[in-house]
């Protein structure tokens, strides 16, 4: 991802991972009746509903839910009424959007945020870039310094769901130690994750995890599908193709 000439954040594009259920879950969640009613009654342009929408963001952090429509409506109201803007609420909205990867909600949010706020949000933007670029080790290391993440219930599990989807797309098989590092997962929790994803351990070598059986090629080859030295352009193309197919 990068900041374009207009000062907006541009992601790599929609990168939907086949079989990833987390994206469907967060996108299908509807606004609570109270919030939905506020937005339908002209609230998208009424500054009086800002406190309710801000409280709704806080509720999403506590409950692990994600209301993309309401959050985008709040960012739009901040644009219409700049004096009401709360940078910490914007950061919370971006954290929820990051947890919704591979949904493109994060990029949609950034288009609604004035450039003057970008510097204050640089840490969260960097985390999102690391996920998009599959720099998972760096993501987990840098996430330790983002204290606001700690108030977002279920953020680690949401990110692991996304990373697992990426791994299933990029690899046929992967070594246990690589998988543990990518998911930032204790060894004792690996088997539960393998079961959740529908993966399996290789019969020949239990330290090798089969994460994708779609290929006709031998699953005994450890490494990414296609060229082992996959370029970032290939990586982008792979996800863009997956998004188009899933659409």
From TrEMBL:
Entry's Gene Ontology BP terms: regulation of translational initiation
Domain CSN8/PSMD8/EIF3K: 86-209
Pfam families given in the database record: CSN8_PSD8_EIF3K (PF10075)
Molecular function GO labels: ribosome binding; translation initiation factor activity
GO cellular-component term (any): eukaryotic translation initiation factor 3 complex
Signal peptide extent: none
InterPro entries named in the record: ARM-type_fold, CSN8_PSD8_EIF3K, eIF3k, Transl_init_fac_sub12_N_euk, WH-like_DNA-bd_sf, WH_DNA-bd_sf
Annotated TM spans: none
Protein name as it appears in the record: CSN8/PSMD8/EIF3K domain-containing protein
